[in-house]
Amino acid sequence: MAEPIFPKSEFDGRYERARKLMVEAGFQAIIGYSPGNQFWLSGFRGSAGTGRIAEYTQQVVLPKVVLPLTGEPALTGLTAMAEAYAKETHLGDIRPVMSPADRPRTIRQILESRGIRAGAVGLDIGSASGIGPGELDILRRELSGFDLRDASKLFWRLRMIKTPAEIACMRRAVEIQNAAFKSFCGRISRKMTESDLIFEMLSCQREAGASEIGMVLSTTHPTGAIFGAQISGRSMQPGDLQWFDAGATYNGYTCDFDILIAWGDATADQIGTHAQLRDVYQEAMEAWRPGRPAAEIARDTSAVLEKHGARDLLQGSFLGHCLGAEVVERPWFGTRSPKDLRLEPGMIISPEWVTATALGNLLWERNFLVTADGLEELSSFPDELTVITK
Question: Which string of DSSP letters, residue by residue, matches 150-189?
């Protein structure tokens, strides 16, 4: 039987933190529309299957959550989903609607029931997969007497510092992926295609304890291009170099790190490329210390890449991200990071960058928990070049 992931006390603690930031921002209430923000406020996941249908799930199935400055939070979503909302969350005020077009009016009614009829209300307008333009227009009309402001950065700051319960979920997700990589590398062969390998990794994640469908990406040199379509009609060949990125999901939280695979006996170029990616990454990570501004870390990271002649295709604009309910979770790290963004204890981060090499455009990525004393690496699968000869 479906039930909430965390106890009610977990969410009460989150609301207390949120309300402190709401007071600073002058918000009478905040509204979570995006998948990650509503999950943080409510804990509602829904079925893993519908989660794969982003164009439908994100706009229709997932609920929208209102957190007032005082009083209990409330949720509005489709009538057909009301039973699932009740089973998977601790929220007592669930207001079903027949259509997404009815949500803005219901949100106004929720605000009024909490005594909020004017003032500033925060909405995650700038968050990925948040409110659509049409519904935003309707909501602006319904809340015409309010000062509706973007609260995306407020949500980012709340979610980037993980609670102990969230850290435990992330630790488990990484443990599962570490185990999945181990079993995966022990049973793959050159008879398999890139598509076969992706499905094999999903199976390994599930066998290792994943609670939901995880994330798998792959690029094979010389036949593929980074983030291009997977290749299903060609088995792996001696001389191929494969970048394999994967993240297991546990209770809604997903990790994200990668390995390099040389198919057949590793060539000198493959060994050299792997060594450069690993060694540059390890040196650059010396700049990633708690308390340092993200933009300053990015500049130092870029300097290390330049020192070793490693060409960053994104020129420092993207050097990593946070992890959590979303794989590439905000805030992101780079030379354009906000001046006040620093590495803080409780963050779980995934530094990465795209390096142009003679064997294709490749990434190197590991997962870390930021502590008061430094970074604790969570991704323990060996960072050596994986060689598959069978």
Answer: E-HHHHHHHHHS--HHHHHHHHHHHHHHHHHHHHHHHH--
